Amino acid sequence: MTTIDPSIVGSRSEPFTTTPERGRLRFFAEATGQRDPVYTDLSAAEAAGHPDLPIPPTFFFCLEMDNPHRHRFLADLGVDVRTILHAGQRFTYHAPAHAGDELTFWSEVTEVSSKKGGALQFIVRDTHVSRADEPIATLTGTIVVRDPKAAR
Per the database record, which ranges form the FAS1-like dehydratase domain (predicted)? Predict the structure, then answer.
């Protein structure tokens, strides 16, 4: 198993930009049971004061998957993706975003730790989302890299 070097704390990913489109937002809103029509109906969104369909809660995680280099981080660390687990996620919202907004994402490693004698290694990353220079959201995600040879 690769040991995660704590010196990666503070390292940053290259930014990438993506633009959410209405169809994806509607699909996600419906799939996650959003009942408020502002997430699926443009007229309802505009009547509520939005310039377009607002991005539903947690959809930023889906947009983060648009990163064409999303697998590079773990590959550069020498981590076998078969040994990772999703350990947690938190969203902090700073401003609303909508369909058609050009959003920029970049990530920074904020913490590296281990438990069970190194059998479980934790990596915490903050992904910052902005529109131009305006902060929109911060996504905090924790992954666990487990040692497949460790006793369970």
Answer: 8-138
**Other residues' Cβ atoms within 10 Å of the Cβ of residue 54:** 22
β-pairing, 120-131 with 134-146? antiparallel
Write down the pTM of the prediction: 0.90
Chain segment 86-125, per-residue pLDDT in tens: 999 999 999 999 999 999 999 999 999 999 988 999 999 9
Do 122 and 112 contact (CB within 8 A), yes or no?
yes
- Start-to-end Cα distance in the chain: 15
85 beta partners: 144
Assign domain 6-20+60-146 to its CATH architecture: Roll (3.10)
Assigned token pair, 97: 């975003």
Dist. CA 12–CA 126, nearest whole Å: 10
Separation of CA 75 from chain center: 18
* Alpha carbon distance 38, 53 (integer Å): 6
Residue 126 belongs to what H/E stretch? strand 120-131
Cα–Cα separations (whole angstroms), residue 120 to 2, 83, 108, 146: 11, 10, 21, 5
